[in-house]
Amino acid sequence: GLALLETQHVDIVFCDLSMPEMDGLAFLRHLGEAGHQASVVVVSSHDDALISSVEKMAHAYGVALLRALKKPLTREKIAEVIEQHEKRLAKGARRAAEMPSFDLADMLRGMQAGEFTAFYQPQIDFRTGALRGAEALARWRHPQHGIVAPGAFIAALEKAGHIDDLTFLMLAQSALTCRRMAESGLRLDFSVNLSLTSLGLPHLAEQMADTVRAAGVEPAQMVLEVTESAAMTDLGHSLENLARLRLLGFRLSVDDYGTGFSNIQQISRIAFQELKIDQSFVKGALRDEGQRIIVRSSIDMAHQLGMSCVAEGVETADHWQNMHGMGCDVAQGYYIAKPMDAEALAGFCARHAAGWTPAEAV
Fold it and tell me: Could you give phi then psi for residue 187, rounded to 5 degrees?
């Protein structure tokens, strides 16, 4: 099978976990190490928990896993897989077309020209339906390419050591939007992502507090989102900066919880006030009992530590009902609204105040 893949173009590979010459786990590992781009379908008669573990392993090896199927294979299941593969190819082609590449000089020019701007995604209280806050997400209003998503520039700015420029830009814009909202009678908290590299900067906390206060806002209205892996890297500097940010009044949030290598006990020592459950878990908890148990126990433990929980990637009524039923506090995702500029956010807030409900967003 591996020899065939080296000499022939193959679109879809069906991998049985129990094969005569090489077990499916080893086959998946070899596929990942060789960098094959074929869509892979895992086939097994084993229980869901084991299949779920194999899915995670395949993703970790970089295998382009399409889905896992339980035996027996039927004509209908194979037809579904082929359709899913074709959708994946079409989506990849669209993304490639939509994601032009930019050099660093163009990015820095765009930043100087004021082309980088914050878009905001609202956050809604599951229990009351109240508008709780919004997360600031970077967008580039490119003169030729229109609105450019962060996937096209974040990694390059981090690699070149310029991500802090963008962080402070997002912080300043969010604080200004926060003040304008307050002037119109609406108190919202605004969340800004804090890069791993920023946590090593001397005087980071004081500079961030100065930036926020210059816009007429107190740090208490700003939430800084830090990925769990970033919080556990270069621990001395990270802990000092995070502690200083807390002392100055900023609120701290664990972003993408469940995707890193730390656990909630480690996180508890940094005095985070919020835990954001990664969208992969929000989706996975609908179909996978193991993930459902992880999410529910994470929410319970977070509450016991005095933290609130935000579910990211809430895209459907099922996501909303499932996360609400597990006791999650706040929802964020397309079911509520896509990220929008400051002007559109003001319009969203007005519609919300007039009696907006999530069902209208579907």
Answer: -95, 110
Residues 140 and 119: their CA atoms lie apart, in Å, by: 10
SS3 134: strand
pLDDT digits (tens, 9 = 90+) for 263-291: 565 666 677 899 999 898 899 898 888 88
For residue range 286-311, what is the model confidence (pLDDT) as tens digits? 888 888 888 998 899 889 989 999 99
Helix, strand or coil, per DSSP, at residue 117: strand
Distance separating the N- and C-terminal Cα atoms of the chain: 44
Q: Chain-centre distance of CA 356, in angstroms? A: 25
Q: In angstroms, how far apart are the furthest CA atoms of the chain?
A: 70
* Helix (H), strand (E) counts: the chain: 15, 12
Task: Quote the CA–CA distance of 262 and 162 in Å, as a whole number.
Answer: 27
CA distance 163 to 233: 17
pTM here is 0.76
- Distance, CA of 310 to CA of 325 (rounded, Å): 13
- Using CA atoms, how far apart are residues 196 and 233, in angstroms rounded to an integer? 8
- Helix H or strand E segment including 253: strand 251-257
- Ordered alpha helix ranges (H), 113-263: 154-159, 163-183, 204-214, 228-231, 235-247
Pull the structure tokens for residue 358: 């999530």
Q: How far apart are CA 133 and CA 192, in angstroms?
A: 11
Q: How far apart are CA 26 and CA 17, in angstroms?
A: 9
Q: What is the DSSP letter of 160?
A: T
- How far, in Å, CA of 334 to CA of 325, rounded? 19
